[in-house]
Amino acid sequence: MDLHVIEHHPQRVLEALRRGEFDALEIIGEADEREFFERLFREKLLARLAATMPGKPKKEEVPRWFVLAAQMSLKLHQENSDLAFEWVIRCGGLLSALPPDLTSKHLDPQTQALVLTCRGFNQKNDYARTTRCDQDTLRKAAKRVPASQWMDWYNTAVQATFQQYGFFEPEGVFVGDGSYLFVPDNPKYEGSCVMWFDEHNHPVEYEKLSGAERRSARRKRCYKLVMLFNCADRPPAMSMRWWR
Fold first, then answer.
1. Cβ–Cβ contacts within 10 Å for residue 198, how many?
2. E-strand spans in 34-79?
């Protein structure tokens, strides 16, 4: 069994970084994520998106806007498993963006330990909560809806909402990008396929490879994701963040 222990100690982390003692860095930080969700709440964009989500349950014990926010937080931290929700919600900025009467997240001045206190969405728990919902709730909410419906929702209702908020440039210039999403070699991943890839994870035709190339090729199960990125026909004159 692998155990992961996470301690909120910014000063110790900074000192370790200065000594070069780190293995990896996440793309998004807590402050960036908090600002991201604060903007979503302020613009009421999250509520608009959640209102169009497929698979509305008969009894909504956890509001869909929080289910959507939790899944977005997982993706911001490059986590595809709902099991990671317990630690992502502690380290990320979603809880900090919620009103203080719903969630409290602070450092204890004496123990310097991170203290989380959350109100649940129902009255089923008689103990203090550290997250607003359980990771199993997120998993069931996602599996309740077929994958095809999630894709239809993203390609129709989500894009219509983005357009209403002015996300797309009026020129209508789009760039297509295809990526392969690798998953464990398990046929239960519906709609996935097994393909040959080279050492750089580029798809190849195995029959056309030389003997040396075949030795470095690997069969991998994957999905292919094709995204359209909207962009302007020229970069904004005074927006350096556009390039980051």
1. 14
2. none
Task: Give the CA radius of gyration of the chain.
Answer: 21
Backbone conformation region of residue 201, classed left if phi is above 0, alpha if psi is from -120 to 50, else beta:
left
Greatest alpha-carbon pair distance for the chain in Å reads 66
Domain range summary for the chain, segments of one domain joined by +: 10-151, 171-243
pLDDT, tens digit, for every residue of 80-136? 788 888 888 777 788 778 777 677 666 777 777 666 776 666 666 655 666 777 888
pLDDT in tens, 14-55: 788 788 877 666 555 677 888 899 999 999 999 999 999 998
Please determine, for residue 244, whether its predicted confidence score (pLDDT) is greater than 60.
no
Output the six-digit token pair for 15. 């000192």
**Amino acid at residue number 126:** D
pTM: 0.68
DSSP secondary structure letter of residue 189: S
Q: State the Cα–Cα distance between residues 56 and 2, nearest whole angstrom.
A: 36
Long-range contacts, 190-195 (Cβ 8 Å, 24+): 190/147, 191/147, 191/223, 192/221, 192/222, 192/223, 193/221, 193/222, 194/219, 194/220, 194/221, 194/222, 195/219, 195/220, 195/222
Can you tell me the distance from the alpha carbon of 18 to that of 40, in angstroms, rounded to the nearest whole number?
34
Q: Give the position of tokens 């402050």.
A: 31
